Queue: 4 jobs
Job 1
Amino acid sequence: MTRTVILEVNREKPEKPKIKSAADVIRNGGLVAFPTETVYGLGADALNAKAVKRIYAAKKRPLDNPIIVHVATEQETLQLTKNIPLKAKKLISVFWPGPLTLVLRACEKVPKAITGGLDTVAVRMPRHNVALALIEESGVPIAAPSANRSGRPSPTTAEHVRQDLDGRIEMILDGGSTNIGVESTVLDVTVDPPEILRPGGTTYEELVKIVGQVKIHPAALAEKSVRAKVPSPGMKHRHYAPTAELVLVEGSVESTVEKTQQIINYNLRIGKRVGVLATDETKDMYEADVVKSLGSRADLSSAARSLFRLLREFDEDKVDIIVAEGVPLEGLGLAVMNRLRKASNYRIVKAD
Ligand code: TXA
Ligand code: MG
């Protein structure tokens, strides 16, 4: 057991002494969870293979799932990578700091523990003053996956991190709720056109505006389980799952509401406690044990922000099954649907 220290920090102007003590932990090979604009990350010195291995142990993460390296300057990216393509430079200048992770050619000094043995490394610069201050003060790039137990919904508050990792890491910096709520977009720029491996906080539409053609890997759509070869082993692991089973209903709004209520009724009849993940427009139409709303269908950023918190809440409500409505695959909806499809373990019902 490690004693986990929780420090509240000001998200706009992080207090220097607190950042200093967290940076000491990182430099000594320890683990610090910290807020980013997307979700909380579990950080360690990226150049210290032993420290990176502790991340896998704390999260119970499969060893073949590579980890994103977080930097505070473009200079650090140059030190970790080689042959950065022109399109990547363009994306960096537009989207960094921000929720875009770039998969680039790794240089030799990047530990294999981070890349899962691949010859590429994923790099991002978070748009969060606490994260940036921690990286700067540590003086090293910080390797950080989401700070949840492997397979659980990603944490959007320090309390979520505590629930999953208390006693397993040295420190949690509590900077309040994260803003975007889903992880960064992972974009492979070692191929042309660039390819989205995981949809996230930077939308497909935004990327297309800057670099023209962008591909979306079938595994990123998560319409069904991919067992074939994928660019990143992490893409085939189960993710984001609450304890309750989840069924996802996809289709037009009217058919979705009808189908969702049918599934609710069946499960109530067989004695299950049923939760519904609805939207503002539809939430009053359901009869079930617990109904929660992702927010308005007209504003998918609210759905992204609340998704992981709501999935955790359903577990506290002790529902046996969650019936979730799909949302449109536009903007942040693509990232939300990727998470919901994976959380459902591909139990997807087509309503139309
Ligand atoms: O927003 C985020 O990206 C958060 C915050 C903490 O920065 N981090 C995050 O990390 O979501 P994680 O480990 O939960 O997800 C990293 C994803 C995984 O799907 C992994 O397979 C992929 O990035 N990845 C990492 N390195 C890669 C590489 N070299 N090639 C392909 N995919 C890679
Ligand atoms: Mg994760």
Job 2
Amino acid sequence: MRSSGLILGIETSCDETAAAVVERGARTLSSVVASQIDTHARYGGVVPELASREHLRAIVPVVRAALAEAKIAFADLDAIAVTSGPGLAGALLVGITYAKALAFAQSLPLIAVNHLEGHIHAVLLHERELALLQNVGAPGPDSGTRESTNPDEPALALVVSGGHTHLYLARPAHGTWTYTLVGRTVDDAAGEAYDKVAKLLGLGYPGGPWIDKLALHGNPHAVPFAFSQIKTKVHLGGAAPRTKAAKTAPIAQLDPHFLFSFSGIKTAVLRYVELHNLRPEAESRRETLFAGPDAPADSTIEQALAQCEPQTLDLIASFQHAVIGDLMKKTFAAAEALGIRRILVTGGVAANRELRSRFRAESEKRYVRVAFPTLALSTDNAAMIAAAAWPRLQSGEFASADLSADPSLALGS
Ligand code: KG4
Ligand code: ZN
């Protein structure tokens, strides 16, 4: 029987076609991401039909590139892992159908991975890679990897991306992990707020990297945005609202102190823009700025800076300061309430520099450890999918032949 510990991960849940090869959930041999930002940027958001079409175009070359970069052949693999949800139905189906066909043709087991669990494993993968680099321990034949931190310590995971702002209690159990939902957004995800505010201000898509860079040039205390305490019963009538991650949450059963809401701040930014007549300036930026498929280059940011009044930069800095403050307040409060001393922050917004430095500073004050993925693995990728599949491969938890996409797949209980 083959036992290379090599898993090919495939991720197509949104607007990135990604494939990666990871060894024993602890060493990334390759991670290829084909971004569709170019396709969606002009619409200011992801267009589902276009996403499926682009995945179809990219999936074969992306998987080939992942194998080539890892310098392996299909025959070297132990399993294929694929994201089965949550995400866009048509986009997920492209990855699932391709992974199924590949698994069948190569007689390999197929492992279904929840995208959110993948984001959490992006941090665990990085922790293990750091441990390997520090020569704390090399992966044994079947034992996985030792970590510099205690790998069996439960963690509070904040998944903060374009589709999610969810807090999970993650607990290791018999070589695998279990998850309990602790908090979540009742409306927009934090990344969605970044994207909508950037769009409103005539900046590029996705908005996070633009706001991240421009916020450095404004006064974060200029506009006092406030988050009010969410009252579940009044606000929701006790029912779970429809959001992008709908199926998940019996929101009324969650502690309201750990609920997030980002639609209010988006409206507050809109009001500020109108009140201070910042719209014409935003429109002129919209016509002139273009970032291309990658994060905005320094020269584009310079160009944006030259086109921003100080008031706009203050607004951007204040928006970011308030959002991060709210993420921190609720995450640290939940950790304290649960007696957890290990926090994992992951998802696209976890790439944010202010977020990283403020979470680090606060965790030092509170004697709590905080960990992030590498910058590249903060946003969607397939290495996190292959890493999350490793415990499943060991426990023989394989997907059945009728695996299908589940756009609102929940994580844990
Ligand atoms: O995890 P991800 O790639 O996809 C989802 O699963 O949603 O996250 C994408 C989100 C977008 O909303 C994007 O604006 C945000 O992450 N993002 C950032 C940064 N980089 C990406 N937000 C704030 N600061 C960043 N540096
Ligand atoms: Zn994601």
Job 3
Amino acid sequence: MQTQMLEVDPLSDNRKLYIRAAEALANGALVGMPTETVYGLGADALNAEAVAKVFEVKKRPAFDPLIIHIHHGKELGKYTVIPDALKDTVHTLASKFWPGPFTMVLPKADCIPDIVSSGLSTVAVRVSAHPTMRGVAKALGRPIAAPSANLFGHISPTSASAVEKELGGNIEMILDAGACSEGIESTIVRPMLDEKGKPAIEILREGPVTREQFRNLVKVIRKKTQVEKPGTETPATAPGQLTSHYAPRKPMILLEEGVEFHPKEGVRYGLLSYEGDSELATEGDWAEMVALSPGNGRLAEAAVRLFAVMRQMDENEAIDVIVAEPVPEAGLGRAIMDRLRRASADRCRE
Ligand code: TXA
Ligand code: MG
């Protein structure tokens, strides 16, 4: 299959392009498309066969449900059934964080095919702030199911060329709108009632909307298990949050507290540094050293660059092993550390 690469024009409303992409989706095609977090692999969410292709092309296990993207919060009621006791909380969160890098898991309406939610009674819903994702969803008139446009478990794509490298030849179309402005996947929460019957949320995945931003809005319940072990039978609340994820093909070591690094003779190491000015970065013997935040942008800059830099180091043939420095674990740093931990977790490779 030839993958068409179509450019989004920053100086026009792109109406014709969005209609063209929506027509492709309506015909059951898969389209790689941008959001402000990462690029998604889009399919018509109400077409079970098209959604099945998403799982096939990504090599994604069937137990890992997809996020649906609606073009406006007013569509939420069509695709979810929100319990009365949670309506105010859902409304507050939607008003505050939509459109944006924010996803809510809610009881699903019957029109959402079971394959989208992997058989769960809930569905994850997001209104992206990216005009392309919203424009195409509006032109389609239905939600777009879109996981990140990478092979399962691999590094998420933050540019159209990264999507092409991951899935080129296996999907019909990619819409190129340049680099993503957030760089890491949306924050996922599940609105629920706490043990006293009061509205609360559980954070299923850390992301650009930070824990601190929920303060004074809604109670956050701590999850008992943060990550699910591969091969676990019982479905966890965020089934896709496997220990090993977002991973480069090369081994990666995260220098967390307690991790000792003993370089081996003959192995070439690359350093994924936070700001590039630590003792390790300046004095170590690295085949390549890349800083996540070389400017003064710190955590926001690090998040935007994270997956692109990991991809660059993965592709650099002068490196055998990637060594990563930790970043401060507060605010956006929590989401970055989550991705670094999963990328460096032990895994079985084919
Ligand atoms: O930023 C993002 O969220 C990107 C863009 C494309 O929207 N999408 C994304 O999708 O990261 P994906 O499929 O790579 O990750 C979605 C996560 C998975 O870990 C999945 O298990 C979880 O959302 N999820 C989806 N539906 C769920 C549900 N009903 N209950 C719990 N977790 C769910
Ligand atoms: Mg993903």
Job 4
Amino acid sequence: MRIVVSDCLRGIACRYDGGAKPSGAVLSLCAKVEALGVCPEREAGLPVPRPPAEQRDGGVWSADGTNLTSAFAAGAQTCLDKARDCGAPLAVLKEKSPSCGPTCVYDGSYTGRLVKGAGVFARLLQEEGICVVNEDVVKACKPSVEHPVAIILGTGLGHLASLVRPVRRIGYHDIEGFPAEARPMEGHSFEATIGSVDDVPVIVYPGRIHLYQGYSAAEVSALVRHAHRLGACDIVFACATGAIEGNAHTGLGIISDQINLTGRNPLAEWDEIRDVDSPFVDMTDAYSPYLRTLARGVADDAGIAVEEGVYAGVLGPCLETQAEAAMMRQMGVSYVGMSLACETIMARALGMNVLGLTLATNMAGDGATHDKVAEVAAEHADDFERLVRGVLRLL
Ligand code: SF4
């Protein structure tokens, strides 16, 4: 996988003050991918050190009053050309910089005040459709023993649990909020394993319960709260779905967004919601663009066929009618299923980074049987395993 990285995050002393801002998490990522280091300001021929520059009135000005708008534009364009040439789907750029900052920049007053917005180079990459993140995103997604990656597996995908080098096992019935009477469906197991996969700390939950079994939205999201209590920052949800004709095919998919059609919301049933600052959880980019891009990169490198699309969560348990499938097609839905919607809402409420992976086992509206789901899951088991392991290795 190729990525574009701000040179100063790689430890290169190219900043206006003559220094660098190396990030351990970014350096660790760079060691696992093909990283193209860029510095738009150096490409513009600006000296090191130099007076600080900030964006103001649609241009870029240095603290000594020099108009640097053209220089910044030229440097950004040169770096964009390099990014295009290398075909990188991801850029990790230094936040706050008038060139590289992905989400915020200084406000032009040279007082240290920040405003929402992007640097000149970051903007070009975003317009190009490249996923641009800052160093904090990479750091926040980096697992450790204190922050294992949580993986919740669905029907036919539970075999991934066998890859874990176990340290400890936890029966679901010992998990707070998980219903004591629940029994696993065929293909699910109710024992979580804490351990590692390829030396990456994980906690794997090889099964789940569903709203359609009569459980509440709070109960179906109990595993998410458990993972969060154990320190997980990243959470991977995997589930079987139906593909919506015209928008997706059967096979592996990366979930880009969701529409909650279950009519339920775990936050409305969660006592702790009364204690949080605001119950209005931001669901923008609910499925982490960074994790999605890593998954796409792993799939491309490994020759794994994946599509990407919007997931619609429905209550179930009956499958969709043809009219419902047609409606979802119009709504832009690619995958329909009965598991993720509440889990993802809870994970976002807890500030977790979500990656949603699905195996579309049938076309929605065509019917599906448990045997068929298991059969298709078995066909894609190797690819699914390679995809998840590939993402874990990059984190
Ligand atoms: Fe770092 Fe980008 Fe500024 Fe260069 S232009 S010093 S890479 S933030």
